[in-house]
């Protein structure tokens, strides 16, 4: 098996498939970026051509800055994404630690109940969620989105983190207890640093759906002051006329934060995925 794995032909084929998949995945991003710097006529005439002296135009970015409150939309998206990820990682890690460390009646049932959240889409309960937000007065507030995204991300976070926390040495935790450390200190100082790759994996898996979501911002927070970047970009899409320069420019600026955060956490993400595969 090792000989087959290290066969040069197999390695070339494997890397060829990965490179092809990478090119396919990056192709839409490439098209959006290059067309955001082109005039409207050039976008439809040569959509795959790079901008040149004749087709180069910044009209899309100028329109976004003038007509849409881009910085407010960007700020709202950042607040919602960062707050949701913080709650997902904190509460998900604490729930995963409790399920993996302590044996109590209903432990297995609780784990299966949380796993149902992975299989059942949260959008099925949109009507009930909207009624709940109206009753609590959270409609057109960022808290409505933060709470929904936290509930959406917790099942996957608990499922992934609990598997990693079971690998943490019991001797290390027992040594901490002998030294007089509280359970909270053991959790925050001993356990969490050892599962950082898994937490980075959870963060990346949840960050992209939250950042790109249009469904819940449109339903729960459609007011101008609470619009996210994805929802704010829709102002340039009309029923009869669409300002494609502005749409592509807004999407280009929305893509950059995700790419930057992915580059920052890519090493931790790969470590988390490969650790799970080896396990």
TrEMBL record:
- What keywords are annotated for this sequence in UniProt? Cell membrane, Membrane, Transmembrane, Transmembrane helix, Transport
Q: Which GO terms describe its biological process?
A: transmembrane transport
Residue stretches spanning the membrane: 12-34, 78-99, 111-130, 142-165, 186-208, 246-265
Q: Where in the cell is it found?
A: Cell membrane
Q: Which GO terms describe its cellular component?
A: plasma membrane
Is Membrane tagged as a keyword? yes
The superkingdom listed in its UniProt entry is Bacteria
Task: Report the coiled-coil segments.
Answer: none
Domain ABC transmembrane type-1: where?
74-265
Q: How does it sit in the membrane?
A: Multi-pass membrane protein
Tell me the CDD domains matching this sequence: TM_PBP2
Belongs to which family? Belongs to the binding-protein-dependent transport system permease family.
Name of the protein in question: L-arabinose transport system permease protein AraQ
Whose protein is this, by species? Ruegeria atlantica
Q: Per UniProt, what is the name of the gene that codes for the protein in this document?
A: araQ_5
